[in-house]
Amino acid sequence: MRAITNIFLTDDDADDCLLFSEIIQEINPNEGTKLTISNDGAALMKTLDETVPPPPEVIFLDLNMPRKNGFECLEEIRNTPKLMEIPVVIFSTSSSNDIVDRSYKFGANYYICKPQSYTLLKKTIAHVLSLGWEKLSGQPNRDDFVIKVA
Predict the structure, then answer these.
(1) Cα dihedral 56/62/64/70 (nearest 10)
(2) What is the pLDDT of residues 93-150, one digit of tens each?
(3) Structure pTM?
(4) CA 116 to CA 25: how far, in whole Å?
(5) What is the 3-state secondary structure of 14-45?
(6) Comparing C-alpha atoms, which of 124, 90, 125 is closest to residue 109?
(7) Maximum Cα–Cα distance across the chain
(8) CA 68 to CA 76: how far, in whole Å?
């Protein structure tokens, strides 16, 4: 299984970005993992346009952001030939079934409701990265779409 070493995070919450970055360093301290952070959807799409190829191996995408929200980004990613195969994991505070269903229909690969504790957040991110690109790149059935780690 190929290790995931090129990760994008798009989230407008600076604290969440800092925590995510610290967790990536803890999970993969010496593996040369590259984390690219965008603070809104418009910045993500600009970065993708300028840097792909090569594509990131996974995008963690918040939904509620200024300028361009996560749904708009996801739709654009899925409709752009050079981006459409990139795994997208929704990384949101919402646990609403309507939001989860909409994310699934828009083509997200997995959905994470941001855990409130650092330990659970770390376990969740580690779990997603342990899936590997091959598993992340497909969309599971709807029952397995939401990742919950205890």
Answers:
(1) 40
(2) 898 999 999 999 999 999 999 988 999 999 999 999 988 878 888 899 999 999 988 7
(3) 0.93
(4) 19
(5) HHHHHHHHHHHHHHCCCCCCEEEEECCHHHHH
(6) 90
(7) 39
(8) 10
